[in-house]
Task: structure prediction
Amino acid sequence: VLRLVFDDVDPGTRDAVAFGTAHVEAIRHFLQQTPIQGVLQVHCEYGASRSPAVALGIAEYLAPAMVPRLEAEFPLYRRTIRRIVSNGLISSRPQASVRPVQRPGR
Result:
């Protein structure tokens, strides 16, 4: 279980805990340490904006084919939170090393 606490606000909002890079790092660590088999449940107090945003960001990283369905099912998701999660997870993905193909006789 990963428990994150943040308010439903944009970054820079005074007197509130906005979603940020520390939350993304916690999500990344959780995903790296926890084998995901089957369903990954993400929820918040109301389930309308924050948790769908986090779920969409994780889906873009783990299961991009699920993104259109989640977008349609949860249209009120927080775009800022989704962008932070998605960009943070995808930017941390190890880059595949590209080697030229060796052709016989060359």
